[in-house]
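Shipment paperwork, digital attachment
Item: protein structure file
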Amino acid sequence: MNKKKMIRLTALVGVATATGVVAVANQAHAATTTTTETTNQTTNASVESTQAAVDAAQSAFDTAQTSVDNAQANVTSASNNVTSASATLSSAIANKEVATSENIASATSAVSSQAIVVASASQAVSEQAGVVSAAASVQASAQAEATSASASLSSSSANVASATSALSAAEAALTSDQSTAANNLSVAESAASSASAAVSSDQAAVDNAQAAVASAQAIVDAVAEVQSSDVINMSAAYITALKNYLSNPSSANAAALQEVAKGADYVKELQQKFKSDASLDVVDPSDPAVQEALSVYAVNLINHLRNQYGLTTAFGASAKANVAALDFVKKYYDDEDWNIFGTTGKGHNKNGLDAYANQLNTSIAEDAGSGLTTWVNGKATMATTTLHNLLYAVYSDIATMLFDDGGTNNWSHAQSIFEDGTILGTGGFNNVYLGVAFDKYGYAHYELYNATEGNQLGNNAYSLDVQTTAQTLLTNAQATLASAKASLQRMTTNLMVAKAAVVTAQDQLAALENSSASDLVAVTKARTQLASAETSYQTALATYKQKEGALKKAGDNLAAAQASLEAAQATLATAKAKLAELEETVANLTNADQLLAAAQAAYEQAVANLTTATGNLGAAQVDLAKAESQLALAEDAAEQAKVRAAIAAQVDQQLNGSTANDRQSAGQDATSLKTNGRALTATVATASAAKQKQGANQGRLPQTGNDDQEASAMALVGLGMLGLTTGLYGYKKKKLTE
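Attachment content:
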């Protein structure tokens, strides 16, 4: 239902009338409590009665609204019918105007002409249907022949398959033994080849293991030889001068340090301690075993120096630190052709150090030495260096950093060795691991990393006991060599067995070559039968293709005939439609008077129906207005009954807490309210009088309450009356929605 707004004309209930309710309530309370309860029951019954009236009025309103909606729908339908009837009437009038004898005769002639066209089109459809029937017959015959040719082709194919199978069986019988023997020979030869390869592989493993033993032995020998030279001892004077300089790098301290260091020429001593050994094999500095020996050797030298200096924290060495050093040197020195010394030396690659530190997320410092270029006996190169060369380079570099490092470097190498927790002023070096690598120019790089749990550079650290480490390397290499030799022995025995099996298989194959004459006859016969079957198959295949071509042509012809038939049927349908249209035109012209009369009558009836529907709508709207008014009155009565019940309850509640004299006074005041109709003023005056009377009687009567309580009781009655008036004004409009 559409939303509607209902204006309610609410009558204002006079103050005297409401006051009368209060007076009656007060009187009833003064007489007996039972009477007060009866009054409350009466007001409550009034509320229920008026609410029932509201529900009934609402139902009547809903019914009236439904009637209006239905009547409106009827008016809309009748209006549409009038519009349609008007159009039909206009068409009938126009038809009447052109219904002359000439037009009727012309239309009749057109019908006759179109009937001829329809007859011709019908004849064309019949003829084309015959063509389709004939084409279908030809197609069916072609289909039967193609099916037969297909069956013949399948049979021929089966014969070929059978003959092929027979030939295969005969050939299998012919070659079975020979194939078995040949296969045995092939397997035996393959086994012999594998055994030979295994022997070669194991021999190579033995050779490699022997080379590893020799290399490990060389490391052991070299380490043993340099044991007496693996420490550098600093004088007390040097240590004191170095500490003074590092704590205060003044010119005076630098000069004092240089003076003390000048007398300690360790480089010359090295020329005597390290001697070239031509019998040692050339080694690769990047070999993990060699790199381990170098880094452990360097760390031991440095830690011994740090102990003399008074430091308790030691440097460490690990495979990961060495791998990182190799990777860094290759990427930022070798690949970039960065010559740190030489005639055009570039110094340290600082950008590379920053980049690699960011990559590993750690602190990095780098020391570099002249490395192999300091070898006094002809300066070893990367292609000719031995382990002795490398050990000498490490010893020489570290010694030079201590005692021959003045000038522009300002003893920075010594500072990097003897600082704790920081290197060259850079913090974050609390767990230093050293990696050693040589660049392609032969210069040595000593990379100092701060190892953390994140970069894991300190994991699986090397043992710093060089002699034990070298001996363990040799022991492991010797065990590997023994294992390789045992495996070579087993593979050699296997090769001998495999060669014997090859000889046996060759003998079996030779023995079977003269025992297959009858199998050869069977193979020849099977081949002849297969050739005949294949000839028959080719004939059947040619016939099948010819029949398939004929079937396709017949199908195409049938499709074309069916298309022509459909076109003829469409032409016939168009002609019939036009004939029907012309016949309708003749009928309309011939019956123009009757059509006009019928249209006129239909129009008048539609107009009459619209008038009736409009009247019904008006009546329904009047009923709806009445129902709205009744609903408004019922709701107003219900609201007033609720207000009266609320006031009666408030008055009774207040009077229950006052004295008998006060209740009598309150009743008189209520009467006064009824008489003069001034609710709020009379209530306040009555409350004041009650207070004075209470004061006059204080000496004679018991106290049942205070003055403020009594005044409040009466004031509430007045306020309740004022609330009644304002409440009624507040219910002037209400929306009803379904």
